[in-house]
Amino acid sequence: MTFNDGVRGDAGRVRTSRGRRGMAIGGGLGGGGLIVVVLVMLLTGQDPAGLLGGGGGGDAGPGQDLSHCRTGADANAHTECRMVLTADALDVYWDGVMSEQTTGAYTPPGFTIFTDSVQTGCGAATSAVGPFYCPADSSVFLDLGFFDQLESQLGAQNAPLAQMYIVAHEWGHHTQHMLGTMESVDRQDTGPSGDAVRLELQADCYAGMFIGAAATTIDPDTGQAFLREPTADQVRTALDAAAAVGDDRIQESAGREVQPHTWTHGSAEQRTRWFTTGYREGRLQACDTFAAQTP
Prior knowledge:
Radius of gyration: 18 Å
Strand order of the largest sheet: 2-1-3-7-6
Helix content: 40-55%
Distance between the termini: 28 Å
Order of helices and strands: EHEHHEEEEEHHHHHHH
Strand content: 5-15%
Number of domains: 1
Structural class: alpha/beta
Shape: globular
Largest sheet: 5 strands, mixed
């Protein structure tokens, strides 16, 4: 998916941080690094406090300079700038959805791109945790190195729309936090129909909503759409990323027996199906995974 070159980005929208290597988190690497990326906490949105270390030294210093991230052309050329413009587009999109489809108001989440480790309201995290949303400080945290791991360890293409799906999924958790969904369910309830899986599938559906509407989401500074209409091949990269982080795929990739009763995020089929539902329907009501008898 390609940004229109002339749309404008706010580099100050995204915080960057560089932490110290070796900060403690719950869990460890394990052979080859796969387990750390996909089993500790991957695209969670669940409260990370139980997995992250409570202390650990905090940030070591400022991270990457994003002052060069000004336009859609910059976003098409640089991954870090793509994050800036994606955040801008997500803010505009969800502001509209909240005003049109709910009685609430939109409050933007924090968004931090970090390197090595980061201190959050949910505890200290290293890059091994993967992308996550911390409800304690209403913020999304992401190490850009995860995108390379998505391809090298999980077999999904490191493509722009796949990256945007991952960010949009975490924004979906912020939407759940704003709507009170996250706090009203049992996030320890595992299995294909458990609340934890339903929460993740709903975030996938919300990500699909955004991507389906991104080409009609208008940059208020320029009057242009943020993004061009995605091609079928581009949408496929997002679907492939959603499938790659399915619990069944993760367990198979790790050489483990597929055990549905342990699932916390849903199968590859569930994740792609709910992403597609959001992409096609474009409404919060269509993403009510908790109303479905079998999500």
